[in-house]
């Protein structure tokens, strides 16, 4: 049975900048799904009023000259 989750993009000042709603079968799978959002910054994952975790932004690889 799938559950509703939200991934909140966290700005540098700690304020939520945007949210993405999605479904997942478990907390672990929700964390895996939310990993895709870390390209835009740190992401907090919530299931209703329960915080599942915080995923840190992916480091941007340096551009070769």
Question: Brief overview, please?
Answer:
By secondary structure, the chain is mainly β. The chain is 12% helix and 45% strand. The protein has one helix and four strands; from the N terminus they run E-E-H-E-E.
Helix content: 10-25%
Give the oligomeric state.
Answer: single chain
Q: Estimate the global geometry from the Cα principal axes.
A: globular
Strand content: 35-45%
Arithmetic mean pLDDT:
90
The radius of gyration computed from the alpha-carbon positions, rounded to a whole number of angstroms, is 13 Å
Number of strands: 4
End-to-end separation in angstroms reads: 49 Å
- Count, helices: 1
Give start-end ranges of low-pLDDT stretches: none
Q: Can you write the helix and strand succession as a string?
A: EEHEE
Major β-sheet annotation: 4 strands, antiparallel
For the largest sheet, list the strands in their spatial order.
Answer: 2-1-3-4
Structural class: mainly beta
